[in-house]
Amino acid sequence: MNYVRVRPGTLIIRENDLGESLFVILGGKVEVLKENEAGEPHCVASLGRGDVFGEIALLDQVPWTSSMRALETTDLLTLSKADFDRVLVAALGAGRIKSAVQVCAYLKRNPLFADWLNYLTKKKISCLPQAL
Fold this sequence. Notes:
By secondary structure, the protein is an alpha+beta fold. The protein has one domain (2-123): Jelly Rolls. It has helices spanning 55-60, 81-92, 94-109, 116-123, and strands spanning 2-6, 11-13, 21-27, 30-35, 41-47, 52-53, 67-70, 74-80.
């Protein structure tokens, strides 16, 4: 995995481009942009600490389904498609990864589990395979 810090306004990924990486937000905020029929981007959601994006393109081998732009200085971890396939897909399978991503997204939206990433960080518990 690689660490990247992006400035506010930076376009991190562009809708319909080839998906080559997965991103984990360590800190900061990112807006999710979808293009309308005229090709103009519109914000449909925002993501923050602990959120993941880019996984759909890697799992389903499709272009990125939306654009992502930093709303503030944002710290990211990136995982290349080659490493994603080698470490995660080979070990777990695409279906299990999709399920895990969906469950994590659900738990983060639930107030009872919303602070799970802070807990893991404080306890220094790693959820990522050592090969990363």
